[in-house]
From TrEMBL:
MOSC domain ranges (all copies): 18-168
Lineage: Bacteria, Bacillati, Actinomycetota, Actinomycetes, Kitasatosporales
Native source species: Streptomyces azureus
Pfam families named among the record's database cross-references: MOSC
InterPro entries tied to this protein: MoCF_Sase_C, MOSC_domain, Pyrv_Knase-like_insert_dom_sf
Protein's recorded name: MOSC domain-containing protein
Amino acid sequence: MSGIVTAVSSNGEYSFTKPNRDSIRLLAGLGVEGDVHAGVRVKHRSRVAQDPTQPNLRQVHLMHEELFAEVGEEGFKVAPGELGENITTQGIDLLGLPVGTLLRIGDTAVLEVTGLRNPCIQIDNFQNGLLKRVVGRDEAGNVVRKAGIMSVVREGGVVRPGDTIEAELPTGPHRPLDRV
């Protein structure tokens, strides 16, 4: 399974959106250099409030650009970085990957997929009604989260738009993604 990077984004200050960059540098065990969510311990405010000693399983947020077209059909206009992701992708089924998948990006960077982003009310503050489009329920009543996946940096490197992404599935049984 493979895809490409269509945009990269980071922000050194707490803000819902992240400006697009020409490149970002991933730091092993930390996240995106200069990004407010980089670190060994959890950095997301809601997680810090629960337990600031938790490991940071949300170092790098990836989102599939195909979601923008999907919500666009319902009248929402979303561009890369506007939902807070660090890496916007195309052509790879991020939501279908199992826990532990390695994503090899560009020449050297390797991310390990940890789980699904659990979107919050900030999405509705960005565009009213958008939260219901990125979180819903399937026919069986199970919660479906579409707002991307979270990962940790296993090997650092520079990531740029146009870089390829190769998914290396883990051995063993498929463990579906859950919120982290």
